[in-house]
Amino acid sequence: MPDRYPVFAPEDIPGIALGSMNDTHHEEVTLVNALGALLQQARDGNTDEAAITAALDEWIHHTEEHFARENRLMQEYGFPPYAVHAQEHTFALENLRKIQQQWTENHDVDELSGFVFNTWPQWFQMHVNSMDNVTAQFLSNFID
After folding, report:
1. Is the pTM of this model over 0.85?
2. Cβ of 18: how many Cβ atoms within 10 Å?
3. Superfamily (CATH) of domain 10-139
4. Quick one: which of 82, 61, 64 has its CA closest to 73?
5. Domain positions in the chain
6. Is the Cα torsion angle 86, 27, 4, 45 positive or negative in sign?
7. Which of 95, 84, 85, 68 is nearest to 132 (CA)?
8. Structure letter (DSSP) for residue 131
9. 91-129 confidence digits (pLDDT tens)
10. Residues 8 and 121 sit within 8 Å (Cβ to Cβ)
């Protein structure tokens, strides 16, 4: 994905078989786009470090809850490849926390922008299209 704002337009988000997961993905993209807007402003010379920090914190908190909910549902309904999907969540959260720590230490707009505009969207698109798609298909047999 190119280095651009918004990070994702609504039509860029792959739809999957479970409405609640789609809703969560849209919420996450809204948070990422809000952070992306702040980063774009910073790159244009109007840096609000406190707002960037707050937006990053909110995104990470949402992602923690998002992954915890998915992990709980996969366990509750006996999703066979639960361990693989849950490990991917752990990996993604570790990367988010790492970029958060780097931001806290050096407030490097370019470094955070690279993650928000390039690294994360590529991962998110792949994760939703593969792991979340299969998980939603399975869970749709039991819920929503």
Report:
1. yes
2. 22
3. Hemerythrin-like (1.20.120.50)
4. 82
5. 10-139
6. negative
7. 85
8. I
9. 999 999 999 999 999 999 999 999 999 999 999 999 999
10. yes
